[in-house]
Amino acid sequence: MNNLHLNILNGLIFMTGVIGFMSGEFIISSALFATTTYTSNIKSDQKNRKD
What we know:
This protein has helices at 3-22, 26-48. The protein is mostly helical. α1 (3-22) runs antiparallel to α2. The radius of gyration is 13 Å and the shape is elongated.
């Protein structure tokens, strides 16, 4: 998955988490925020690691 697709996916997951948080679905939104953070860290870790 290239950077554009990953950024779009992260943005959609984040916005879904915000909407879920506003509607009171705190457990689901927390899981979505964690997923967004995890995928962002994977992307930055791969960028920093030049084997």
